[in-house]
Amino acid sequence: MAPDPDRRTQLLRGVLDTCLLALLARTPTHAYDLVVLLEKHGVEGIGYGTVYPLMGRLRRQGLVEERSEPSPSGPPRKVYSVSAAGLAALAEWAQQWDATTSSVRTLLATTGALPDQEVPDHAHA
Question: Rounded to whole angstroms, how far apart are CA atoms 102 and 113?
């Protein structure tokens, strides 16, 4: 069966905000550069039409801050950085992601869907 890009998109949709906060926590940057960084980290297929509105939502939620920076060509560009509330959300969301993926990985391994995975001792119950 060929990989389903729509399924991958649905999986990413739930964690894209976490990925963006993680990238911004490392280096404040432009929304355009976030798409490039996502691709460099193997998170491909996320376009500017997805990232720009999400950055607006994160800003309205108080999780990112924005400032204008002069551009060598054209209008000033927005530079985003993570706010203190964004860092707190990132820590919580990363922990939720880790717990969720760990549980799903264990379930898949114990049911044989991931036959080459080591099954934690507590999962044999």
Answer: 14
119, part of any domain: no
Retrieve residue 97's tokens: 């992601």
Give the predicted TM-score (pTM) of the model: 0.84
Q: Structural domain of residue 51, as residue ranges?
A: 5-112
90-108, pLDDT tens digit by residue? 999 999 999 999 999 999 9
| CATH assignment of the domain containing 107 | 1.10.10.10
Tens of pLDDT, residues 113-124:
987 756 555 555
Residues 56/58/60/61 CA torsion (nearest 10 deg) = 170
